[in-house]
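Quick one - inputs below.
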Amino acid sequence: MSKKERTAIEPTREENYAEWYQQVIKAADLAENSEVRGCMVIKPWGYAIWENIQHVLDGMFRETGHRNAYFPIFIPKSYFEKEAEHVEGFAKECAVVTHSRLEDDGHGGLKAAGELTEPYIVRPTSETIIGASFAKWVNSYRDLPLLINQWANVVRREMRTRLFLRTSEFLWQEGHTVHETPEEAMEETMQMLEVYARFAADYLAIPVIKGEKTEGEKFPGAVNTYSIEAMMQDKKALQSGTSHFLGQNFARSSNIRYQNREGEFDYAWTTSWGVSTRLIGALIMAHSDDNGLVLPPKIAPAHLVILPIYRDEKEKEAVMAVVKQVQEMFKGTWFEDVHLYTELDDRELTGSERNWHWIKKGIPLRMEIGPRDVASGKVMIARRDQGPRDKVAVEMAQIKDYVLKTLAEIQANIYAKALKFQQDNTIKIDDNKAFYKYFTPKNEEQPEIHGGFALSHWCGDAACEEKIKEDLKVTVRCIPFDVAEEDGNCISCGKASKRRVVFAKSY
Amino acid sequence: MSKKERTAIEPTREENYAEWYQQVIKAADLAENSEVRGCMVIKPWGYAIWENIQHVLDGMFRETGHRNAYFPIFIPKSYFEKEAEHVEGFAKECAVVTHSRLEDDGHGGLKAAGELTEPYIVRPTSETIIGASFAKWVNSYRDLPLLINQWANVVRREMRTRLFLRTSEFLWQEGHTVHETPEEAMEETMQMLEVYARFAADYLAIPVIKGEKTEGEKFPGAVNTYSIEAMMQDKKALQSGTSHFLGQNFARSSNIRYQNREGEFDYAWTTSWGVSTRLIGALIMAHSDDNGLVLPPKIAPAHLVILPIYRDEKEKEAVMAVVKQVQEMFKGTWFEDVHLYTELDDRELTGSERNWHWIKKGIPLRMEIGPRDVASGKVMIARRDQGPRDKVAVEMAQIKDYVLKTLAEIQANIYAKALKFQQDNTIKIDDNKAFYKYFTPKNEEQPEIHGGFALSHWCGDAACEEKIKEDLKVTVRCIPFDVAEEDGNCISCGKASKRRVVFAKSY
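Output:
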């Protein structure tokens, strides 16, 4: 065996994927665990990614006619009790507010006091509290469609948490809409799933599979749930966004009624849809490598870091003059539809230390400017999607063109790489033994590495789904849209099936 | 008496200011009370104002070197107990989370279950939880200054609430910074107060008085609190933003220590500063009139509404062709440093109904386009800062120039009007009887209307402050920066005083 090359992140993906993930986050300074159980602190570089996600998605929501609003964080217990499936789904893990003050406990400490007549739940999702407002806002078909989005924090108490992927508090957006007919509500549900898929592909550079969730995996209270599913580098699936057709379920429980075109009162048809800070987890796990974070340029907080190199004041003066020119060159510049931001790192550290700092943070381009470069009228530019030591000389006059062209290349490369990985690890399996073998880890010591997505037939029976889950920890990720009907036999029971579904292990 | 002119808002400001305020909010569709005690629902037009406030302030924070991050919503009780004054200030009205799930209560309902070993408080402000992170992030003077901002929701349970002005949950930003020296921390405290004052004047068109809070009015745990105070149209003061110099108080309780340039460990110096959705209340009460909301163009969600007028399909075709031209004309246009947005209202309502709809919403400009206008190559434009029936004909070729010029005029007019009102209602009072008369309502039936700001001498004794508060419900709003020292006598006790302070009733 050849001597292992040292990487910035240890362990590597091969060695221990779960730990690699934590170390990438740490090295890029994205987030950390807090002492509040299950809650994370999102640090500036991580939060800036979230702000970019918000900015782009918010524009897409506006273009499709949605408006932002804000509803209370607390949900009265009685609202929660109205929809049976919904409460079943969320009551087991929630934060319950029962008291309204703290008072002296007589031992130098404080105790909860002022018990509330009705406890509140900190919102795990807002269908019921928003429904209470919608019931007041909707009177006639003229008030429809009602297209609202909320950016907010939500709380679902989780036992085993992982930064970004599963935390007790997380940030998200939740769209809530009301429609006159089931067709319109379904059209909205599909439109927003499509918005999510387009955002994932075009900005996060993550190819996703769109499809419907099975009965067992759908949102509590929904008629149908649809999701986008992405493949991480350990070949597991990550559900990255969901869009729900709620039928008249929540309209009934919240009493959202409207006078239709015939003058009669009827319950309205509603939808909800959301993505969360989990997308940052997807971004990390889809693209990063053993040297740290890799950011698609269209979602990166900054695109180019300038690293000046000098040994004395005279060199510094010459170098910093060029640095200033480059900074000026990019002021007010756009990379496609996003602002192009530069960073300057002139800390008193070695060139190598600063270089590796930014490699680990995933910035798309690094530019070194030293005395020799100044003399030759050039700068050295390195790309995050190439080796850490690869760099090319670019003439001053060419810098802007080179940067814009290269950012577009990086964005395309990252997407192409993720797509190839997904395709290489997605196979049709029709044989039960082959299916079981595919999902059984080859190496006991590295149970994380296993098969990817299996496109296999499923009869639709929950018992078959459950058996596979128990045997292999593999679930039906979705019933994909882009797979044609065909005759086949259920991978578990062998009964006739009309369609292949996506099986995978998942987060 | 002349016959009273009918206004869009009833009652008028004169008749009942508090109720007028509620009605302006309702007529403009900004927000409403929810069934969750003290919590409001911010509706799209109100939320869009908040988004504009966020956008502008966020840019100002970035320019001054701050970065956004996000910290947990829950504060462990033990964190809260660390700073004595702080807990004293917030423990009496807070939301306490004590349980982690709901379970069947045996009577068809649900009850709180899964009691937590340590209760959490839903953040009323985040000094203690952010301090816990800062203690980990700060090790050396090289890590300083640390300049962080958070956009978040906070909860302070309030008994008597009023939309935007005082709600149990509200949205805000809270800046938290750490410094090497008290001088630097104080400089930061002052810089951010100045940012708030500039934002209030230049965007909200509200002139404010900057000054220091008295000992009794400062933030629990702060060494000094500074605020900007604005005058509302009922002549009451509204504290619109605060900036706190926290000394080493929170550094001590959170253990934020750093190695200084001499190699010794010392507690750092911290600041915090915030503004909230209360600013929307300030905006409403400072500028609106008896016909509804008046929005300064630089913070309005939209600047120009187009109101097409036609009676048949033929007229519609001609009119809508011009509407489209006008819409195109403004695509991608900026009004100074904000995007210029147009709205189109072609609902099936009368011209008058649509006109009044937008007057009440406070949009700066309304443009009518009818068949006669099309024929003459002109449109009719009305301004929100003039009478509801005043309008001028503007030629097509002049529209863009006229709109941009007029928006700037409106912005300046609104500010000038508010400044004149503040100046007209601020007087120096040196006589105790005159002071008491100034603050005693002239009309028993309209206790809201009273004197404005009194610049009077105060000896600095809390007892004098307390007496005036008890007698008149008047408090020292601030010890203003822009008032020179001069010899005088305390308005209450008559003892020697070096300085005038601002006395007023307040929200």
